Amino acid sequence: MSVLVIAEHDNAAYKSATLNTVTAAKEIGGDIDVLVAGESCGAVGEAVAKVAGVSKVLVADNAVYANHLAENMALLLADIGKDYSHILMAATSTGKDVLPRAAALLDVPQISEIIKIESADTFVRAIYAGNAIETVKSDDGVKVITVRPTGFEAAAAEGGSASVEAVAAVHDAGLSSFVKEELADSDRPELTSAGVVVAGGRGMQNAEKFEILNGLADKLGAAVGATRAAVDAGFCANDLQIGQTGKVIAPDLYFAFGISGAIQHVAGVTDSKVIVCVNKDEDAPMFQISDYGLVADLFEIIPELESKL
Amino acid sequence: MKVLVAVKRVIDYNVQVKVKADNTDVDLTNVKMAMNPFCEIAVEEAVRLKEKGVATEVVVVSVGPKAAQEQIRTALALGADRGIHVETDERLQSLAAAKVLKAVVEKESPQLIIVGKQSIDTDNNQTGQMLAALCGYAQATFASEVTVDGDKVEVTREIDGGNQVVSLTLPAVITSDLRLNEPRYASLPNIMKAKKKPIDTMALADLGVETAPRLSSVKVEPPPVRQEGVKVADVAELIEKLKTEAKVL
Question: How many CB atoms lie within 10 A of CB B205?
């Protein structure tokens, strides 16, 4: 068996989800190669070579891979990946975009967002917005899998000494081009890898009031998240949405402020180690899955928490 | 420009999903079914393109049981012009669905194909990307804005940490995210009109596509239940518990 992991990176550094994906690869077994495709991404390749458990790093450095356009990436993955038993990529927005396309080119199914590995051909994943957990078996030669990072610990970033090889293949589908990207400029940790997350729901009332979460987040070194209801109501940016169709998180500590606890949201936070719920409504379903509940007005509690922590 | 939209019949998003006692599947007996919410957004976008004069015809296709005609009718009531029903009682996996849709694309030659980013039953998030791969078309997943300009389409995509804009050469496949638009409600006159719009029905077998399942389901279980914890009286007690009991501060 041999596993190909596709690194998630921005050409300067790899994203932490790559480390969780390497752990999933280790659980499958066999040699682990990591593909770093991008432009001027040599430093990423060097960093990945230090990750414990990686045998070989393949670096495809070319302008056609700069923005990880799915059309070009999928051609590369189908070309390099066909000789592996498994191809793994984190279930990030890039992984979800690129990998199904590569799977179709290889004429194999994709197993999406696995949370557990039973064996080299059997995997566990959430369906119906987390209301059911399915175990699926694949008999295809190449198993193409996206990995939900919260299901697997991060591999050690140091301790490995993999060889680094350049990949010469240049695949340009010529179908699409990158125009621009607007990324939120934030000093806070990334939502999906943060140790502490403070999130707000409809109970935050409006965009201005939603911002009181920022002070508490800064105090805790936490990321800020939101429910779909809060995003739809325009309280905050779309990419803060936590839930089955948004981001799935598993921090050590999760604060839910004014969040009722719709199943779609709960599916995205249920693997958190400790859940704290603050809500005026003592019947909010969120309390049922929380370790600590406080029935109170969040607009009094948030400033008090911030000052006493 | 012809726009093709694929829609899927799934469990209604308001239904409380229950796993069968024998752990083979979720229980779909007598539950309310509806159009997948992301597909509804895809239909709305296509109809808006027609209202703007960009699209000339909106064709909606569904692959599924006889009852999937209800969802095609819903799409026609929202403003699609005609329907295609590929009838099958098989529950197709994503790759097979993409192959069937490719056969429809070959018959219809649309310039733009819009599908939902994922269905709320299997939560796979694959079919649009696979269809684009099989057709050799460009793709833009998780779209929040679509602008057609000549033989190109510019799409704003929701990505981790923000937005990305890509430009695709047509024909192309777009998958809709939540905030692409807010679908309208079908008016009664439009529901009546939809009954007269044509639906072309064909048997799955007639398309000559290999659709046998490639993944097998071992079991389906309810998710693990988190135990309800304790209520604390105030902030001081909460901080105390987080420090000494949970040890996360």
Answer: 11
Q: Tell me, what's the pLDDT at A110?
A: 98
Mean pLDDT of A106-120: 97
Q: Quick one: average pLDDT of A259-272?
A: 92
* Option in B123, B136, B234 nearest A129 (CB): B123
ipTM (interface pTM):
0.96
Q: Give the pLDDT mean for A3-25.
A: 97
For chain B, the average pLDDT equals: 96
Picking from B137, B141, B226, the nearest residue to A97 by CB comes out as: B141
Which residues in chain B are contacts of A228 at CB distance < 8 A?
178
Non-local (6+) Cβ contacts of B123 within 8 A are A112, A113, A125, A126, A127, A128, A129, A244
pLDDT of residue A137: 98
Give the mean model confidence (pLDDT) for residues A206-228: 96
Task: Give me chain A's average pLDDT, please.
Answer: 96
B67 touches chain A (CB under 8 A): no
CB contact under 8 A, B124 and A110: yes
Nearest residue in chain A measured CA to CA from B125: A96
Confidence of residue A186 (pLDDT cuts 50, 70, 90): confident
Question: Which residue ranges of chain B lie beneath pLDDT 50?
Answer: none
Would the CB atoms of A97 and B17 count as touching at under 8 Å?
A: no
Please give the span between the terminal C-alpha atoms of chain A, in angstroms, as a whole number: 50
Chain B positions touching A126 (Cβ under 8 A) are 123, 223
Q: What is the 3-state secondary structure (H, E, C) of chain B?
A: CEEEEECCEEECCCCCCCECCCCCCECCCCCCEEECHHHHHHHHHHHHHHHCCCCCEEEEEEEECHHHHHHHHHHHHHCCCEEEEEECCCCCCHHHHHHHHHHHHHHHCCCEEEEECCCCCCCCCCHHHHHHHHHCCEEEEEEEEEEEECCEEEEEEEECCEEEEEEEECCEEEEECHHHCCCCCCCHHHHHHHCCCCEEEEEHHHHCCCCCCCEEEEEEECCCCCCCCEECCCHHHHHHHHHHCCCCC
